[in-house]
Amino acid sequence: DRQKHIRNFSIVAHIDHGKSTLADRILELTHTVAERKMKAQILDDMPLERERGITIKMNSVEVHYDGKDGQHYIFHLIDTPGHVDFSYEVSRALAAADGALLVVDASQGVQAQTLANVYLALDNNLEILPVINKVDLPSADPAGTKAEIEDDIGIDTSDAAEVSAKTGLGVADLLEKIVRVIPAPTGDLTAPLQALIFDSKYDPYRGVVLSIRLKEGQVHLGDRIRLMNSNMDYEVTELGVFSPDARPFDELIAGDVGYLTASIKDIHSARSGDTVTSAEHPAEKPLRGYRPMTPMVYAGIYPTDNAKYNDLKDALDKLSLNDASLAYEPETSTALGFGFRVGFLGLLHMDVVQERLEREFDLEIVITAPTVTYHVVKTDGSQESIANPSEIPDASSIKEIQEPFVDATIMVPEEYVGAVMELSQAKRGIFQTMDYLDKSRVNVKYKMPLSEIIFDFFDKLKSSTKGYASLDYTVAGYVASELKKIDILLNGDKVDALSFISHKDFAENRARVVTGKLKEVIPRQNFEIPIQAAIGSKIIARTNIKAYRKDVTAKIHTGDPDRRAKLLDKQRAGKARMKSVGRVEIPQEAFMAILKNG
Ligand code: GTP
């Protein structure tokens, strides 16, 4: 009977369309959080999420709702991130739900990620309930937005809710619609336990905390459970739901979304996508797990202090539990020592991983410039996949270098089509098609090198279309390109971690920009440092950093001890993310200089 009163749904949307704000209103209306504890975007509890105003992690929460029919309902709501770099979170969240609220900003209409999220929801056979948000805005066009949802996506909007997540208007009606439209979970309570792990995190006291969706059977405190893929048995020490704080229960049944702990200390045995079953009466087969993610970009991560290598390894292991899209393996660099080559879904993801390693694990790291994976076909016919530019072999042994291309879809109002095309051509894009979605909106498709899309395409696209364009892309395959490896020499020594790949037409220009940027960011030392860029043995750009006395306080004659102390502090803090390479100290920004396109 309890099962009939459960509704499991995820909230999905294009970035900034208001998912987290809607979740706030639902939590408030259902009195899930005491009024004095309520704050905006309450489910975004990671400090990084609050500072940046974006959702990075999914969050599941149980809320209780008294329906107009006099029945008591239990909602499991899963808020998800909107940015493409975190789409793996969305796909895992959807596998735990039976329905999805598709939030669409009524002043913006359907955007590229609205569509991408709908496809993910349909892949998971979810019932989709459209929610037209921000109807309080003067520029809101709810009727037009509904028409777009019907025409562009093909979803019936007769049940659609019109709300303002900001003012709360329409949210009470939405709760009733959730009861009516989102199906109750099914699942046999007497069948052997099958629960999907859709997320996890490491807790130093309780071990791994698993987020689970029970598909079949039940689980009780003290039960012997088995993780089917890793084939490990444990005893359940805690069960419960997040509401939004952990609330322990004695049992969970098919249809529930909750958490489970079992003193699991072995991080590698408790991965998202695995199935929890009973050790005594195991299910025959595990549930369908998740397709592992293929990283889009790779970068090297090194501890600034070489002695911290093992701490970094431990941190990556723990972080990867909570960030299932993180991939890493050890690598060594002549310049930087022992570290890891880490795969990311995009630059925002890379940024977040760097910050989380530094904040949650108290590490000081340097991260090298991100790169895509290249396929190198050698003259002897062999082929290698390389995610580190310094590993590209000598040009004489290379037949061709292939780079990943994507199919990019850009949705844009008609007046900006010219700007989009100009930018796409400049980024080596190959025009495919252009379709009118309606009178004024156009869908433009290009084949484009992934490396160009990832680095600054999106920012340039936004600025050249006043923020009106939205972008989505999928990897299409590898294509041979005229690519060159450019090495950087500091003080005559090649610094492997600064090597990069460029299209031959842009090589000299980029070499000049990069050496210029390095000159700006590498602090002067008490000897002159030549900076050179080379293709093979041919130098294509050069500059010098002049010698300089390094003590910044030497120049200060005020004798103000406070000021002097502050400057020394600043100098020390600036050093934190420096890495000594030979006699030269290289700051973190130097590695990112390579991203500068001029
Ligand atoms: P991500 O999780 O980062 O993808 O964003 P989100 O979809 O969760 O959006 P969020 O809830 O953070 O809202 C984005 C912005 O829109 C915030 O500045 C909100 O205050 C604003 N916003 C959300 N709902 C409404 C609404 O109904 N009306 C108005 N006027 N603003 C809204």
TrEMBL record:
Topology term for the membrane: Peripheral membrane protein
Signal peptide range: none
Domain Tr-type G: 4-186
EC number of this enzyme: 3.6.5.n1
Keywords recorded for this protein, A-Z: Cell membrane, Elongation factor, GTP-binding, Hydrolase, Membrane, Nucleotide-binding, Protein biosynthesis
Annotated binding of GTP, by residue: 16-21, 133-136
SUPFAM superfamilies registered for this protein in UniProt: EF-G C-terminal domain-like (SSF54980), P-loop containing nucleoside triphosphate hydrolases (SSF52540), Translation proteins (SSF50447)
A GO term, aspect molecular function: translation elongation factor activity
Pfam (any one): LepA_C
Record's catalysed reaction(s): GTP + H2O = GDP + phosphate + H(+)
InterPro entries hit by this protein: EF-4, EFG_III/V, EFG_V-like, EFTu-like_2, LepA_C_sf, LepA_CTD, LepA_IV, P-loop_NTPase
Principal cellular location given in the protein's record: membrane
Annotated localization: Cell membrane
Keyword presence, Ribosomal protein: no
Record HAMAP family: LepA
Function statement: Required for accurate and efficient protein synthesis under certain stress conditions. May act as a fidelity factor of the translation reaction, by catalyzing a one-codon backward translocation of tRNAs on improperly translocated ribosomes. Back-translocation proceeds from a post-translocation (POST) complex to a pre-translocation (PRE) complex, thus giving elongation factor G a second chance to translocate the tRNAs correctly. Binds to ribosomes in a GTP-dependent manner.
Protein family according to the UniProt entry: Belongs to the TRAFAC class translation factor GTPase superfamily. Classic translation factor GTPase family. LepA subfamily.
Protein name: Elongation factor 4
Native organism: Oenococcus sicerae
Organism phylogeny: Bacteria, Bacillati, Bacillota, Bacilli, Lactobacillales
